[in-house]
Amino acid sequence: MLYNLLYPLVDQVPVLNLFRYLTFRTGCAVMTALFISFVAGPSVIRWLRHKQGHGQPIRSDGPESHLLTKKGTLTMGGFLILLALTMSTLLWADLANPYVWIVMLVTLGYGVIGFADDFLKVSKRNSKGLPGKAKLLAQIVIAVAASLLITRLSPEPLSYALALPFFKNVLVQLGWSYVVFTTFIMVGASNAVNLTDGLDGLATVPVMIAAGVFALICYLVGHAVFANYLQIHHVPGAGELAVFCGALVGAGLGFLWFNAPPAMVFMGDTGSLALGGALGAMSVVTKHEIVLGIVGGLFVLETVSVIVQVASFKLTGKRVFRMAPLHHHFEKKGWAEPTVVIRFWIIAGILALAGLSTLKLR
Fold it and tell me: What does pTM read for this prediction?
C-alpha cells in the first residue's frame, strides 16, 4: 500500500525512491511483522484464553509426557501469525501485483480451514476437528483456483511447464496435468507442515528458514538480469513475493517469542495449514516446486514417516517407527523435547543450503 501511495510522489520527494527497492521493502516487512507480533501477541493470547479456557485437547494416543506438559496450552496462535503477515504484506507490497493476492488467497484460505478445524477441537473438547475429507476437499478447491490463476499469469512457455533443478533449459510440458501437480504441491506442503507442528517451535523455525530461502528465490526469479546470469527461468512480477516472504519471517519470529518452550500458545492448524500452503504457492509461482521438496525436506521426512508407518501397519501389522510423525519416534526413544527440536532445526538449515545450491549448479 505504501508503495502504491508514495512511490508516485518520488519526483516531489526524492527520498521516496527507496520504495522502489524490493530489498528495502522486504526488510521493512520483516520488522513490521515482528513489531505487530510483539504488540498484538499479549492481547491475542488473552483473547484466546478467554475463548478457549482449557486450551487445546491433547491426543490420548500421543507421547505420555504431552498429557502433562502440553495440557492447557492455548491453540489457534496461527491467528497472530496471519494477522502480522497480512498487515505487513498489505503495508509494504505492491498491491497491483496479482501474485501477491494469489499467495494471500491460498494462505488465508488455508488459515480459515485451519481455524475451523481448531475451533471444533476446542469447542467439542476432542482432537479430531473437521472431518478429514471435508478439510482435504476445501484445500483442493483453493489450490485448483490458485493453480489456474497462476498458469494464466505465467509467461509462455512456463504456464504449464515443470522446471527441473540442475538443468538450465529443461522444461517438462505437462499440459492440464500441471494443475493437478501444482494442486498436489500446495495441499501436500500444507499438510506436511501441519504434521511437523507437534512440538514447541518445531515447525515455526523451519518455515522461517524456508521462507528466507524463497525470499531470495523470488527476488532472483523476478529479476531478469539475475535470472539470466543464474540460468533460471524468469517470471516477471514474482520478485514482489520477496516482501511476502519477509513478512512471513518477521511474523514467525514474533510468534516464536510466545511459542518457545514451554509454549504459551500453539499455532494450531490455523497457522500450520496456512504457512505450508503459502510455501507451496510460492514454489508454484517461481517454478521451484521440486526445490521446495529439498528446502522443506524436513516436512517431507515427517510426512513420509507417517505414510510408511500407516502402510507398514496395514500390510504387515508391524510399525517401522515407535510413533509417527518422526519427531515422536525420537521422543519415544528418550530424546528430550529441546533436543529433538534443535536437531530438526539443524537438519532444516542444512536442507535449505542444499536447496539454495540448485540456483548455481546448472
Answer: 0.93
pLDDT digits (tens, 9 = 90+) for 160-186: 999 999 887 789 999 999 999 999 999
**Distance separating alpha carbons of residues 281 and 102, to the nearest angstrom:** 8
The cell numbers describing 129, all together, are 476437528
Nearest CA-CA partner of 138 in 107, 104, 105, 113: 113
Rounded CA-CA distance 360/362 in Å is 6
CA pair distance 145, 112, nearest whole angstrom: 16
Strand partners for 172? 162
What are the strands, taking DSSP E only, across the chain?
161-163, 171-173
Rounded Cα–Cα distance for residues 320 and 6 (Å) = 58
Is the pLDDT at 50 greater than 70, yes or no? yes
pLDDT band at 67 (very low <50, low <70, confident <90, very high): very low
> Which letter does DSSP use for residue 173 in this model?
E
Which residue bears the cell 508391524?
A: 318
Find the Cα–Cα–Cα–Cα dihedral 111, 113, 115, 121, rounded to 10°: -150
CA pair distance 216, 357, nearest whole angstrom: 12
